[in-house]
Design brief:
Blueprint (H helix, E strand, L loop, with lengths): L2 H33 L4 H8 L5 H23 L7 H10 L8 E2 L4 E2 L7 H11 L3 H8 L8 H6 L14 H10 L13 H9 L3 H14 L1
Antiparallel strand pairs: 1-2
Helix pairs in contact: 2-4, 3-4, 3-8, 4-6, 4-8, 5-6, 9-10
Bound molecules: fe (ii) ion.
C-alpha cells in the first residue's frame, strides 16, 4: 500500500470516529431532555414562593401567553406544533424575572430586566431542559440577533437570540400581546407592534411575518 493511500484511509477513519462521537452526544442530549419529566409548576414552585405578588404576576402573565399560544396552535393544525412543549415552555418563558431589577413587577434582583431571558435559560438548563431554555433566551422583543445585541450595547451575552423553531417563534409572538404590568389586558396587534418597535426594524418585520403566519 502506498503512502498516499494510507494517509487517505487514516483521514476517513478519523472522520468516522468524529462522526460517531458527535452523533452519540447529540442523541444523548435529546434523550436526556425527552426522558426527563416536566412539570412547569414544580419549577415555578422552586423559584417563586407561594402567596407572593411576584409569583402571581409571573403565573397570570404566563397563563395568558400560554392561552394565546394554544389558541393559535389549535387554529393551525397544518403547522404540526408540539402541543405539550408549547404549553410547558410558555409557562416558563419568564422564569428568570426574579433575578432582575424591576420593582414595578415585584422583582428585586441585581440584573437589568432585559437579562431575564438568558437568566431564565440558565435556570432551565440547570434543571435539565435545554430546549425549553432556548424559548427563554429567544423571546425578548421579537428575538435579538447578535448584531442587535452589539449595536444596541445590550447587557446580555453576545450570541444569536432569535427564535428558530416554530414553537419558539409562536411563544415569542404570543408574549408580545401581554405585559406584566397590565395583567388583565390583551394588546391589539397595533399596540403589540408599538411595544417591540424600540428593538429595531428587523424585529418589526419578524412580527409582521408572524402576524400573517399565525393570525
Ligand atoms: Fe413574557
Amino acid at each position: 500500500m502506498n503512502r498516499k493511500k494510507r494517509v487517505k484511509e487514516f483521514r476517513v477513519c478519523i472522520s468516522v470516529i468524529f462522526f460517531v462521537i458527535l452523533h452519540k452526544n447529540i442523541n444523548f442530549s435529546s434523550r436526556e431532555q425527552k426522558n426527563k419529566h416536566m412539570n412547569p409548576y414544580e419549577i415555578i414552585d422552586k423559584y417563586y414562593p407561594e402567596n407572593t405578588e411576584q409569583r402571581q404576576i409571573l403565573v397570570i402573565h404566563s397563563l395568558s401567553v400560554s392561552g394565546k399560544a394554544m389558541k393559535i396552535l389549535d387554529a393551525h393544525p397544518e403547522l404540526r406544533l408540539n402541543r405539550s412543549f408549547v404549553k410547558e415552555a410558555a409557562l416558563l418563558h419568564d422564569i428568570g424575572i426574579f433575578q432582575t431589577d424591576a420593582p414595578a413587577i415585584q422583582c428585586f434582583g441585581e440584573n437589568p430586566y432585559i437579562a431575564h431571558g438568558y437568566l431564565g435559560a440558565e435556570i432551565l438548563r440547570a434543571e435539565g431542559f435545554p430546549q425549553h431554555a432556548l424559548v427563554c433566551e429567544r423571546h425578548t422583543g421579537a428575538g435579538l440577533s447578535l448584531q442587535d445585541i452589539i449595536d444596541q450595547q445590550l447587557p446580555i451575552p453576545h450570541r444569536e437570540m432569535l427564535p428558530v423553531t416554530m414553537e419558539e417563534q409562536l411563544i415569542c409572538f404570543a408574549d408580545k400581546f401581554f405585559s406584566k404590568t397590565r395583567l388583565d389586558e390583551e394588546k391589539t396587534v397595533e399596540k403589540a407592534r408599538k411595544s417591540i418597535a424600540k428593538y429595531g426594524e428587523e424585529g418589526l418585520s419578524r412580527f409582521d411575518r408572524w402576524c400573517s403566519l399565525f393570525l
